[in-house]
Amino acid sequence: xKIIAMIPARYEASRFPxxxxxxxxxxxxxxxxxxxxxxxxxFDDVYVVTDSPIIYNAIKEANGKAIMSKKEHECGSDRIAExxxxxxxxxxxxxxxxEPFIDEISLKKLIQVFKKDIxxxxxxxxxxxxxxxxxxxxxxxxxxxxxxxxxxxIYFSRSVIPFLRASDISVKYFKHIGVYAFRKQVLIDFxxxxxxxxxxxxxxxxIRYQEIGKKIKMIETSKTSIGIDTPEDLEKAIKxxxxxx
Length: 245
Prior knowledge:
Strand order of the largest sheet: 5-4-1-6-10-7-11
Distance between the termini: 34 Å
Low-confidence stretches: none
Number of helices: 9
């Protein structure tokens, strides 16, 4: 089974433009992420896929592997699908470009889903983390997920799911972390399917996979991602990097 990591990398970001090229301990954020993915030794290959010549050149100058997107894309899955279309690969793991502190344990769990799935019943795997804070649960920026007894996703929503109508019932709430592992053909099927109505309504790409009948295995993690979305996040990342050196 050939397993690769793909790091989708857009230069433009609404909240923090050019964040992937910001200096993090002497290297751009995207290069830190690329090198961290390599250092897990979980993948046969690691690529950055980008629409930006600046990012592309930064990776190539560091002797890394980068692919230029030929098209504009609405989401990371589309960008990755275009990049892997002509690659010989079985499983593709989507690593977030703005998260240089990779959670190796969670990535290993995602990969294990496919190694154990001898009948190929699972199409893709992703992560969830339990949330208990009321504001976090009600925040529409946090995508919530509910699953069946086998931890297969039933639905994703920006609304509060499940809705607690009976106050004497204890339920757990889970936030979806947008790290995915896919079978290659699933990515291609997604890429060749127009945006679906529920996906368009919620602005959640995971829903398109569900609407076209793909099975998503959710893996619970206790770790929340450390992403760089603002200049303040970058300062925290610089501090954390120094602490880890």
